[in-house]
Each structure stands twice: as C-alpha cells, then as structure tokens.
Amino acid sequence: MQYRTDPASGNRLSALGLGCMRFPGYQLGRPDAKAAQDIISRAVERGINYLDTAYLYPGNEACVGMALEKLGLRDKVFIATKLPHASCKRTEDFDRFFNEQLKRLRTDHIDYYLMHNITSPAQWEHVAALGIKDWIARQKREGRIRQIGFSYHGSADDFPRMLDAYDWDFVQVQYNYANEHYQAGTAGVMEAHARGLAVFVMEPLLGGRLVDKLPRAAQEILKKARAGHLQTPADWGLSWVWNHPQVTMLLSGMASTEQVDQNASIADAALPKAMTPSQLETIARVVEVFERFNRVPCTGCNYCMPCPQGINIPGCFAAYNASFAYGRWTGLSQYFTASAVRTASPKLVSNCIHCGKCARHCPQQIDIPARLEDVRHRLQPGPVDAALRVLARFRRDGAAE
Ligand code: SF4
Ligand code: SF4
Q1: For residue range 221-251, what is the model confidence (pLDDT) as tens digits?
Q2: Prior bond to 306 cis, omega within 30?
Q3: Whose CA is nearest to atom 7 of ligand 1?
Q4: Coil, strand or helix: which one is 48?
Q5: At 80, phi and psi to the nearest 5?
Q6: Which residues pair with 202 in a beta bridge?
C-alpha cells in the first residue's frame, strides 16, 4: 500500500481509504454485517488504515463499530465520521449526536470528525452561532476528537470562505477528472493543500459514472491508450486523482472484497506525478466526450431517497444519461426497470408532486423536480406515456380479479 502523510497531524494514511457508505444492503438502509466485516478485514489486510462513515448513513456506523470490535481492529485504523449539523437545533445536540456516534462505533474517540455535506458557509454559521467552536475545542482537549474538518459540495467561490471560517485540520472534497472545475475543483484542492490541510478526495469515480457508465466512445479512447497498470477505466480515474501530490488520500466506496483488492493494487502503483503528458492528454479527450453526454450530474448517492411518491430518482437520472451515452432504447429500457413499469403501480417520473423534499438533500445541488421533467420529456413522451397508462390499468384490473 502507498502511504501519504497528513500534513496537519503527521499521521501516515493509506492513499486509499475505505468509504463504508456503499456496503451491500445500503440501498435498503440495512448494511449487511457479514459482508461489511469481510470488506473491512480485507481492507486492513491490504494496508488500508482509514474508514469513513457518517451518522446519516443508515445503520452504517453501528455496522462499522461491530465489525471493528469483532475483528479487534479498532487500534489499526483511523475512523472518520460526520456530524449531521442540519439536525442540530440546540447546543446540546452536538453532545447528543456525538455520544450516540461513539456508542455506535464502540470507541472512545473519533480520529477524523467532519461537518457533513457543507454546501454553503451559512450552514457553518448556523452551528457556529450554537457554540460549536467551543464544543470542538473541548472535545479536542479531552482527546475525543483528534482532527476536525468538513466534507464539501458547495460552489468554488464559497470554498475559500469555508477555509477561512475556522482553523480546520482537513477537508474532504469531490474531485475527479470530470470535476476539475466543479465544486471545490482543482483550485480548491490546491488552496487547501497550500494552507497545510490534509485533502481527502471523495467521488473519485463519480459514483461509477467514470467506470461502467462511461460513454462507449470514452471507453474506447481509454482502451486504445492502455499501458502498464492503466488497464481499466477505474485504473485511469483513480490514478488521475493520485497523480496529484496535493491529495492526501482518496476514498472509494467499496462494496466487495474483490473491489478492495482491485483498488488496493492500483493504489500500490499510482504514485504522485506518475502520469505522462500523453496519458493526461488521453484523460482530456475522455473529459470532452463525457461532458457531451453527462446531462444530469447525479452520482447515485441516494441522499435524496426515499421519495414519498416512490420515484427511483438516481435510477431515472442514470437512465436519462444512458439514453444520451448509449442510445434512446438503452435509456428507455433502464427507465422502465427503474420505474417498475411491470407492476400494477409503476413509479413514473410523472408521479412527481414537486414537493421539493429530495432537492434539499442533494449534494450536487441538482434541481431534481425540474430535471425529472427533462427525463419525462425524453423517456416518457406522449405515446410512451399513453402506453404505460394502459399497461398499468391492465395490470391493476388483472390484480383485482
Ligand atoms: S419533488 Fe418529486 S421526486 Fe422529489 S421527493 Fe417530491 S415527489 Fe419525489
Ligand atoms: S439526485 Fe442528488 S441526492 Fe439524488 S442520488 Fe443523485 S446526486 Fe444523490
């Protein structure tokens, strides 16, 4: 395993961190404890020493805590988890959430603690007004929090304001070759590094969009340029992030021991500044193709779910993007699966009542109801809509008989 030094603490961190959010079963809110244990065990065997979870990942902290206790690995890893700051209404809430997190994680301290999913400095100002600065200082003094930071999904302009707002130890930003100018972007990574902060990268493969959902033309470009350890789209995407010496660690949400093995092998080989000018040129060509097809920047994180109307929001956006990348029939077929058209009550995008609940939670700040309208126009136009309604009525009548 390749290790990099956290400039703020001096900790030696594996260049690859284990994002725990996507353990099998996460879509149902019930991560599989046995699978999680196997993944964590393999990750530590492969040299990974950083695990990232959050209060808001359903069942995840408890799953991680139980696995570490069973495996006896607490002292071998750094644990990162996050405060659900939007749910903090009073000063006492900081203790309430934090104590619950310690209990779930079966530990007496958190190595890396984050304000979760900051999209605007106003969110920090809200908890600052409740006294969080004093609270953090006390936790640090008492050794219950070791390093403090924030995960960020806001604009490039607001990012330096967040850096100025507190004496942070680290930041966690979305960064990959398709997002150089999106959210914190390259400028944010450089700025945080220049200030002596550790820089942790999330979404290095854009929730899989830079792997299996990469447009065919882009996959062809990468295939033709294969060399050394750069064989698959994942190799290219991860190596591009690690090519930056300013990046302390990259988090990957691994859902199987095989993924751990694959990513750990890339981490061994992908050293800082290792990519050649011609390989970087290849990536630039892939970005050009990707941008032509990437109509909705959904990463499939599921934060917007559940929708009260049952709409599979990430599934519908994936189908919409696929309709540009792979053709309208592929998109339609994916849309029919995502919206359960073979049942008596399909969850079509036209069922959206524009309540806005989903958009409030989207880290990519997608105007979800508006973009679902785009999906409806493309994948559920008049004739398709009429056919789906007839089909649904037929199924309902059949079920009633
Ligand atoms: S706005 Fe539409 S898609 Fe979003 S939660 Fe409400 S009904 Fe569901
Ligand atoms: S729409 Fe936003 S919140 Fe929902 S899955 Fe996509 S990126 Fe995540």
Answers
A1: 999 999 999 999 999 999 999 999 999 999 9
A2: yes
A3: 352
A4: coil
A5: -115, 130
A6: 174
Closest CA to 269 of 12, 10, 16, 9: 16
pLDDT-wise least confident of 46-55, 278-287, 320-329: 320-329
For residue 397, what pLDDT is reported? 73
DSSP letters along 261-290, please?
HHHHHHHHH--TT-S-HHHHHHHHHHHHHH
- Please work out whether the CB of residue 321 comes within 6 Å of at least one atom of ligand 2: no
Domains of the chain: 3-291 (3.20.20.100), 313-400 (no CATH)
What are φ and ψ of residue 292, in 5° steps?
-65, -30
The answer, yes or no, to whether any atom of ligand 2 lies below 6 A from the CB of 242, is no
317-338 pLDDT tens trace: 989 988 888 788 888 988 988 8
Using CA atoms, how far apart are residues 369 and 199, in angstroms rounded to an integer?
33
Quick check: CB of 313 below 6 Å from ligand 2?
Answer: yes
Q: Is the dihedral of CA 15, 22, 289, 326 positive or negative?
A: positive
The residue contributing the CA closest to ligand 2 atom 7 is 298
SS3 (DSSP) at 24: coil
Cα distance between residue 324 and residue 318, in whole Å: 10
Give 373-399 pLDDT, tens digit per residue. 999 999 998 888 888 778 777 777 765
Question: Tokens in use for 121?
Answer: 């400095």
Tell how far the Cα of 113 is from the centroid of ligand 1, in angstroms.
31
How far apart CA 118 and CA 165 sit, in angstroms, is 12
Which contiguous run of DSSP H or E holds residue 81?
Answer: strand 78-83
Nearest CA to 13 out of 149, 177, 207, 167 is that of 149
What is the CA(300)–ligand 2 centre distance, in A? 5
Distance CA 113, CA 166 (A): 14
As a whole number of angstroms, the distance between CA 31 and CA 120 comes to: 30
Q: Is 188 in the pocket of ligand 2 (CB under 6 A)?
A: no
User: How many CA atoms does the CB half-sphere of 217 hold within 13 Å?
Assistant: 15
The atom of ligand 2 lying closest to the CA of 299 is 7
CB of residue 227 inside a 6 A radius of ligand 1: no
* CA separation for the pair 334, 326 (Å, rounded): 11
Secondary structure letter of residue 306 according to DSSP = P
Report residue 116 as tokens.
């979760």
